[in-house]
Every structure is written in C-alpha cells, then in structure tokens.
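Observation: inputs received (chain + F0G).
Thought: call the complex predictor directly.
Action: predict_structure
Action Input:
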Amino acid sequence: NPLSFSGVWRFYELLPFAPTNQILTIGEGQTLCQRSDSVAQYVGVKPGNLFLQYEGMNPSGSFKDNGMTAAFTHAQLVGARRAACASTGNTSASLAIYCAATTLMRAIIFIGSGKISYGKLAQALDHGALTLQIAGDFDDALARVQQVAGQLGIYLVNSINPFRLEGQKTIMYRVLEALRWEVPDWIVVPGGNLGNVSAFGKAFIELKELGLIDRVPRLAVINAAGADTFYQLYERQGLRWNGGHFDSQKIDNYYRGLDAGNLRASTLASAIEINRPVNLPKALRALERCGGLVREASDQDILDAKAKVAAGGLGCEPASGASVAGAKKLLQEGIIQPDERVVCILSAHQLKDPTATVAYHSSDAKLFEEVLGSRGVKRAAFANR
Ligand code: F0G
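Observation:
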C-alpha cells in the first residue's frame, strides 16, 4: 500500500493533486531525523538541541526522490512518455532510477561538462538514462533543457516543476513527526536551485493555515561562497518578496553583471554550484513568511562540517555539510541561540561525491593538491580521529 510504504505518500492528504490509485512510488522518504550531540557541540547549541534530517537514505541517495515521486505521479496523470532535467547530479540520478523502476518514461539528462561527480554519473548511466554533456555549467544546462523540453513537449522534472516541491514538503512533515510536532526554532538547509527552501516554506505556511502548528520555524539558507547569488541578493542588496511585489530588476541586473564578468559558480560542493537559482522568487516568499535569512559557507567550512557529521555517524556529501557549517556560523554571530532547537538538512549521501572527501582525509600530498589545493582548503589534519 503506497500510503504506508512511502514516506511521502503517507501524507497524501497534504498533497492534494493525485487520486490514491494513481500514485507512483519506489519507497522514498523512509528517512531519519537524528539527534546529534557531537554536532550540537560543534555548532554551539546545547546537547539535545541539534537534529540532522538525513535524506541520504532515499532510494537514489538524495532528497530529490521526495519530489520525483510526486512529479512521476503527475506525469502519469498527464500521460507523459519522456522526462528531462538539467542536473548537478542528484536530480538526474533520481530521474534515472524512477524511469528504470517504473518504466513510465524515458529519461533524458543534461549535465554541464565535467561538472558531475562519478557517483552520480554512474547512477544515471547504470539506470539507462540518455545522458548528454553540454558545453557549459549547470546554469547553461538548465537554460538549454527548458528550451528543448518546451519545444518537444518533454516533461521537465527540475524543481521549477511545482509537483516536485509538493513532494519535498514532506521532508518537513517528517521532521515535525520526529519532534512530536513541537516546531523547532530553526531549519537550516543548503541552497542551490532553492527548491527545498521553497517547499519547506510552503509546507509550514500550509500547516499553520490548517491549524496543525501554531508557529513556523525560521528558515536559514546556506549558499556555498562560490555560488552565492541568493546571499548577495538577499543579504547584500536587500531583495525581498514584499508580498509578491519583489524587485525583479535587481535580479536581472545581478545576472547581467555575472554575464558581463563571465562569472561562473565555483565550489567543490558541486551539487550546489549554481548561480541562477530558478526558484528564487518562491524562496523569497518562504523567507518572508518564515523569518528567514541567508548565509554563505566557504569550501573549507563545508568540508570541516561534513567530516564532523560523518565522525558522528552520518555520511553526507559536501553540499549537505553547508547546513551544519551555516548553523555554526549563525551561532557565532549570535543569531541562533544555544538553547534553540536546530534541524540541519543532510540532503544526500556520502558516496555520491567522494573525491573531495578522500582528498581531504588523505596523507597523499599530490592527491590533495590536485583536488583541493587550488581552492585554498586545508587538510583535515585527521581532526576527527
Ligand atoms: N543538496 C544536494 C545534495 C543537492 O543535490 C542539491 C541540488 C541541493 C542541496 C540544493 O537543493 O536546489 O533545492 O536548493 N541539486 C540539484 C541537482 C540542483 O541537479 O541535483 P535546492
């Protein structure tokens, strides 16, 4: 029964677009919200106040599956036969596994050349997706796939697809369930295309309107410092949702500036190496309604945080480390208080993107130099032993 088998569709009353006999699921969303006192100490909150929402347990190893099951269910309702996405690797892995497992659609994947980790590329290839490398990075790939999918009538599963976000709302339902419906003070989430934060905001707005919670948590989005469009626009330029009357000119000007300087996103947290987040307006809305803010974390801080999480028993990929690095920063700034309850999202599994991790822990100076040297990152110094 999909309604009990799936950690997404258990909440089908809150995903009101599909009849229950049309649901396509492969058992996603059976994930864990785990208290971590070692990470609490690292971040600076009191023991018992830090929780890690570990989405690496999904069938394809990332949070994307929460959204993919919803997109596939919708695709089935509209009779789609082919689906496409641009990806830094996790959306494509998720699309590929859902195509393979459900045989509903054929997968077509656009990736920026040299921009995807081997773990994620292996998933796309092994599950039989048509995988196309295009000249450029993720931002170029997304622009291309939107154009091609529009022209050829291919179902698009990037997070611009609103059904994806419906599914991703359930990550927050499971967090609340784990906390016995006591709303935490903070949700801290890595920001790439800003689908997750948009979905989380929507989840809380709806739950409050339904009277199922009496307050919303604050949302903190953490960009990688080398891919920090949202941080720049929100924190530096003061861009706000303003009840829907946001200054879109500011966004256009910012992108024009990126183009003029040929400025590309660059971070070893390759999953969030994105400069033109498609869900930016929705994310602004989420932050307005949930007292949100944005911070950036350096590659060093991301890798250090990730190693700390792993030393505590949960393995995640670099992008996921951003949430813990960001929480630590917000404690240092005095914005998060030590007695507040904080939930950090670990968006994907450790095995997704192991190259930087191996280099970080390696005593092989040559390997370290090849992978991390040019980024000014220092080695773990075996910090977590
Ligand atoms: N963490 C991981 C592991 C991701 O793969 C992504 C996004 C994010 C965080 C950011 O989430 O886009 O909702 O803000 N990965 C996309 C992909 C872009 O193509 O797999 P977001």
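Thought: report the result.
Final Answer: Strands lie at 32-35, 50-54, 82-87, 106-112, 130-134, 155-156, 186-190, 218-224, 293-297, 342-346. The two ends are 44 Å apart (CA to CA).
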